[in-house]
Amino acid sequence: MPRLAPSSPLNGFRQEFDRLEITEITDLALVSIASPQGREAELASAVSGAYGIALPPVGSSVEADAGEPRFLGLQPGQCFALFERQDEGPVDIIARKLSDAGYYTDQSDSWAVLRVSGTRCREALERICPLDLHPQTFVTGAVARTVMEHLGVIIFRDGEDSFLLLSARSSAPSFLHAVVTSAKNIQ
Amino acid sequence: MIINHPLLGPRDASEFVYLGDASLIDRPDWQAKDAQQQFHDYLYLRDNPAGAHRELWFHEQGDRSWLVVTRDTITHEITNVELARDVALQRGRGR
Amino acid sequence: MSQTHRIDGGLLDRSRALRFTFNGTSLEGYAGDTLASALIANGVKLVGRSFKYHRPRGIFTAGSEEPNALVTLRRDGHGEPNTRATVTELFDGLVASSQNHRGPLRYDLMAVNDYLAPFLSAGFYYKTFMWPKAFWEKLYEPVIRSSAGLGRLSGKADPDIYDKGFLHCDILIIGAGPAGLCAALSAARSGARVILADEDFRFGGRLNTETMAVAGTSGADWAQQAVAELASMDNVRLMPRTTIYGAYDHGIYGALERRTDHLAESAGKPRQVLWRIYSKRAILCAGATERSIAFGNNDRPGIMLAGSVRAYANRWAALPGKRIAVFTNNDDGWRTASDLAAHGADIAAIVDTRDRAPLEAPAGATVAMGAYVTDTKGRHGLKSITLSNGTTIECDCLAVSGGWSPNVHLTCHQRDKPQWRDDIAGFVPGPDLPVGMRVAGAANGALTLAAALREGHEQAHAAAEELGFKPASIALPAAEDEAVETSAFFHVKADGPRAWIDLQNDVTAKDVKLSHQEGFRSVEHLKRYTTLGMATDQGKTANLLGLSVMAECNGRSIPETGTTIFRPPYTPVAIGALAGRSRGKAFRPTRLTTSHKSAEERDAVFVEAGQWLRAQWFPEKGETHWRESVDREAVRVRESVGICDVTTLGKIDIQGRDAAEFLNRVYSNGFAKLPVGKVRYGLMLREDGMVMDDGTTARLGENHFVMTTTTANAVSVFRHLEFCRQCLWPGLDVHLISATEQWAQFAVAGPHSRDLLRKVVDPEFDLSNEAFPFMACGEVTVFDGTPSRLFRISFSGELAYEIAVPARYGDAMIRALMDVGEEFGVVPYGTEALSVLRIEKGHPVANELCGQTTARDLGLERMVSKKKDCIGNTLSERSHLNREDGLALMGFAPVMRNEHLSAGAHFTSRDKPATTENDEGWMTSVAYSPTLGHSIGLGFIARGRDRVGEIVQAADPLRGKTIEVRIVSPHFVDPEGERQRA
């Protein structure tokens, strides 16, 4: 038998609108890192040793050097490492760097990832996102988990006019419909 | 309603799930002599105040924190929001 | 027909003529018109029929308070009944028709109701149609419903689309009149994020309808300048055509923005957007609404509010009459007379209830002081009025002013009680405003222009300061404080013809008196008995009149009589807007498994399981009945091998030094000693001792477990575990994260399952029974290196595995499994066969774990450890839950083999009638067992375990069927579990 071929939740969706673009991001690896209770300092020092950064507080993110993960603070004691997918298993990559300082769970296949970008992206997101995305309130690098059209979504601002949206893989078509409808409705 | 999350700031109540009285943190000791009575009271006896009420909310569509929210049941005014974990630790809960 | 009543001036674009039709007649107006102003310009007086009496009615107001001029706009599915012509922006091609009449509007056959008025007074339903009782539903109600009412729905699906959204601001300003514009300028210049919303398509409010100057220019021009400045600031969002319809908790406001209502076609864009606005502060600048005066026959077409008559002339260059009389209790009515006179209208008379004339009357007008109107004439349009001094004055329009009521509606949405102010004879906002709300201008009782501008500025200044902004110093635009003295004269106390109070619900002064006479004297009773203020306009022009009549009956003042308060929405919101996009398939999200596409290709029939779509069965060629497919699938699993997608089960990744201890406390059975590489069935109780959920949990490492939950409880179990972790045992080192979406998981079940998996799992992994026995688990690789998790667990009772691959490989995996399984005759099986197999095996699911059953009821009492603390342990020991005659989960088989059991049937002894008193339990699950060749069931029955072999009745009154069943073991197939261990 040949090896199994991977498929992305939205088959690499991409569509352009007026000053707005919706693109599926398919090459990301995501690993959740939980810090062991009472040994938070060990994880912190492992992270700073390996990546030269401090773990971000909930709601913000921090990026290590180019090619290294970006860490998203999602909940107390837990963050996501976001990095480009490689041949090696995502958990193995993190564990190789941080040893057993944290608890790691592969989340790479749990999410469909959309990038919504362009100068009209906030206008489109207003239709589904309850959070205030004003650039002074939700700054570049900010991250939050919220709900859009009944679906849990992690929203991460990776630029002035660019957001990454992560929503559950199984409901990805419904989520895409929600985002695309927003784009169409503002045009 | 808006719940002013201690870590995240104001968030819409629609991101949260309501449980009930914050006294649910005070789970009795199973080995107490009158454990059954204590568990009965813990589970079924609730105050129903017209006024300030400490209650548990779960930020399900958010950071997954359980919160203790002090809310006026008449006006919906929220005067305090704490991480339930901190409250539990203060109330002597541990392992 | 030409625009016979069009005059010069106004805020219209005369270069853009717009054609429209009303009741089939083609008419013309201009850009800037409303439907109402265009109808007036064309001399149309009669626009509808009243709710109950089918009285001819005309346009009464120039705003959203309109009670009369309700029309149906557009056609077919696009049709929108009960639209107020006064706020309908005219567009080219608009089609409108009048409502609530049979036959032509002018000759409504239902007008006979007007002659039946003596029988149709307040409460007439309750009095008249009491007997005979059976007539109510069949005769009276349908007749009443068809004769009374508003417009009709098309009955077709609305082809337009609607949307919703979320907005955030520091300061929300509601209303863009003088106070609102001043507030917006002030707030915006301080740097605050401002939203300015107004229901009108043109900002300015009364500035557009009055002739008073602001800062040395016309009010309308000043408004345009203010809007231009605001539009240039990027911290300001201007929202015309937007109604703030509700004030909710903590500064949240509901807003309805009409995006394309003013266009002929929506062009695929949302027609309306329902916004949720989060504000830190809000300033209500909603202005005031003029009220009427109740007098005989005061509802004829041509009788209008004075400020509205003035508005039509000033803003829309449309004169509602050629010869106009004014009836007023206040100074403002006089300004209508002078403005109209300036437009060249013939002012027939000024009738003022007060004794002293405040201003000079236009030349030629009869002035009657201390007088009032007692009656009017003109069936389809006003012809003359009769005064209290006996004179009759011919006129085709009567402008009535009963003074102005502050628009306090939104201040009441959190139960604030408005307070009476004698000087303006009206209610102003009370002390308990919604959090963060301030009120400025006429809404606050500041009825003069200069005061409105000043209050708008002051309130915005204060709000900005509270939020930490540095308010800019601003020169208030110069304006005058015009004369606004008023008196509290609201109804003519005479036994003349009927005097209308609530035009939309056809409530007259007599109805209010009747209500008093019959004991409904509190304002809340008055409202409900007479329906006063309960129409779609919420009595905006009527409530105070009703209160004044009731106050007079009570012999008390209006403030002593009290007032009702308002609820959202301020003006009606279409259901379509409330639904937004949540229509059809978009009503809720759909979740698909990774094998969905492959199942579709196999023509699977799908079933909704919560949000999931799961394959229910896979029909093969020639199968005509679902049972054929399901039986085949179940038999193939028992005889060979089948594959079922079980991804929908909740999967929770649990890690931490205390993970084992944590599981030991949330499951009723022991988990502390589960070895690495093993799976255990776990039973989860609620604290009250009832079963909450069940599933298997695998130990992947010393500190690493993966728990499965039922599909339905995946979310609630996760929530419960987080509660336990954070609130009960915050000192444990345990961490949870959902892994449901991460893994595509397939059950591979049947005697050939191991053979199949040997072709899937890479050869270095030993799958022999010795190396990988029942309840083993481990991380393996499949198809040359794809990481995978393998669990040897069985829901069907057969030799079975569940194999999980990262979801990205799910689609490839199911196809590969089917390919390599071909030599064993593998079948995909759906939820129906899954159900058959588990019922044959006696495994409980949600039907049995219904929230009312205990471990003991399920025969699992040995799974509740008495040696440890766990959720639900203590209360599960309550004596009542452990009665000797308690329920037990048993199997049931029909005595006559060919009979079919039905789920939901209740059990009674054979010798007793099937009544509630004799109820002994119920059937939870049934299936046809292809293995046994007859119908089988699971169910709960009292003392079941002592009654094996007994025959009882299973009564199913819903399906009208009672059959005899034998109580048997719930394990129909392989009760010793030898197959799954093979």
Automatic annotation (TrEMBL), chain A:
It comes from the Bacteria. Transmembrane segments: none annotated. InterPro entries: SoxG (IPR007375), TrmE/GcvT-like (IPR027266). This is Sarcosine oxidase subunit gamma. It comes from Hoeflea poritis. The lineage of its organism: Bacteria, Pseudomonadati, Pseudomonadota, Alphaproteobacteria, Hyphomicrobiales.
UniProtKB/TrEMBL annotation, chain B:
It comes from the Bacteria. It holds the Pfam family SoxD. This is Sarcosine oxidase subunit delta. The lineage of its organism: Bacteria, Pseudomonadati, Pseudomonadota, Alphaproteobacteria, Hyphomicrobiales.
UniProtKB/TrEMBL annotation, chain C:
Keywords: Oxidoreductase. Pfam families: FAD_oxidored (PF12831), Fer2_4 (PF13510), GCV_T (PF01571), GCV_T_C (PF08669), SO_alpha_A3 (PF17806). The keyword Oxidoreductase applies. It comes from the Bacteria. Residues 918-974 form the Aminomethyltransferase C-terminal domain. Residues 497-581 form the SoxA A3 domain. Residues 596-868 form the GCVT N-terminal domain. Gene3D superfamilies: 2Fe-2S iron-sulphur cluster binding domain, sarcosine oxidase, alpha subunit, N-terminal domain (3.10.20.440), FAD/NAD(P)-binding domain (3.50.50.60), Probable tRNA modification gtpase trme, domain 1 (3.30.1360.120). The keyword Signal does not apply. Belongs to the GcvT family. This is Sarcosine oxidase subunit alpha family protein. It comes from Hoeflea poritis.
